[in-house]
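Holo prediction. Input below; ligand is KG4.
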Amino acid sequence: MLVLGIESTCDETACAVVREGTHILSNIVASQIDLHKEYGGVVPELACRRHIDLIMPVLQQALQQAQVSMAEIDLIAVAHGPGLIGALLIGLNTAKALAFAHQKPFIGINHIEAHLYAALMSHGEPVSFPCLGVVLSGGHTALVLMKEIGVYQLIGQTVDDAIGEAFDKVAKMLGLPYPGGPQIERLARAGKTGVYTFKAGQVKGRPFDFSFSGLKTAVLYTLKGPKGQQPLENLSMQEACNLAAAFQQAALEDVVKKTLAAADRHQVRTILFGGGVTNNQRLRELFNQANPHQTYIWPSVGLSLDNAAMIAGLGYHRYAKQGAGDPLSLEPLVRIPFV
Ligand code: KG4
Ligand code: ZN
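Structure of the complex:
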């Protein structure tokens, strides 16, 4: 079965062709980083306009690289949320138009669920469920108990900023370009530990929830002083590296601690990771150090950031389970509850 995947939830326009849920024939991603860089974050209105320009060329490229025509596609899978409403509309309406014009079934996919499926796709071998899914992206931070593909229980999530968002905002404070995650990781490597100490937030009575907003503000106060007084003027490169290291350590340690505690609580041996922050090598080191006996499944490079191969791959399973596509009246959803 050949599935065409379409992704446009945020600032990546992506199309992919995937055979039988795992075999990637093409995975084209047009990033908009250049467009949003000067604003230090994604500007929704600009993202939507760029999606309009890019969606058809990216689709053509994905079909060409896979060496298939629309006539050979069996199913169209599209991320219909969560995401920016205008951005979602471009991908969803493209998918509907293609489905209608070519008389193909189409199916809406939860973008966050697809981030977790990306790890399964990367792994290549079957995993034994239940697993613990960890989503660490620019828009989401969540711990999910996965009983099988499509059967989930949300265990914890952020109550304020997503972890990637916190990385991006702290990077912006340090004058680093968007997206900030890789920049923070780079500086942190040269940072001295122990010069600054931060802690991620804890949510009372909810041990597996996350809070990164206070951590981000703590970095800001260290930089500028509580009321904008005593700024750390002319921040030296070394000080910026020390701050980046302290922030990164606090954010990642919190993820490691809560994830391993959740795995323990639910007696899960396999942990799957999804989302852009999982590219962080320090995160991987910390997990291996904290518990080398767990099985960690990380997404491969092309599948960690937003992409359409994960959408197509999950679409294959969803369609098999549902036994049918979705109606053309399917709506975009800014938020989708996980269960
Ligand atoms: O999964 P993704 O492409 O987008 C969303 O679905 O939100 O993830 C993008 C996020 C950005 O916040 C980016 O700064 C972060 O992933 N990121 C990183 C690293 N690489 C990307 N964060 C920390 N360390 C990295 N190496
Ligand atoms: Zn994403």
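The mean pLDDT is 94. That is the main takeaway for now.
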